[in-house]
Amino acid sequence: MKDGGAKAKRSARLNDCLNYLHSNRAFIVNYGDGFRHGDPVAAGFVESAVNRVVAKRFGKRQQMSLADQNAHCLL
After folding, report:
1. Which residues 6+ apart lie within 8 Å of 54 measured at CB?
2. Taking the domains of the chain in order of start, what are their residue ranges?
3. Structure pTM?
4. What percent of the chain has pLDDT above 90?
5. Residue 6: C-alpha distances to residues 2, 3, 9, 67 (Å)
């Protein structure tokens, strides 16, 4: 039953993802609704913020860094 552990791990990750989405639903932008109402859809500010954080943590080799397995949480 090697696969049982993998299934449990996937299930736990999915559960974590669903909990995150549920907890943060008030902050998740509904781009589809905005688009349907003629609002401009732009994510440049988000891309800029992500680029700054990634550059600070990884590109410039700051003292504080993230472990490889935890970097996906930041992204």
Report:
1. 74, 75
2. 1-29, 42-75
3. 0.45
4. 32
5. 7, 5, 5, 22
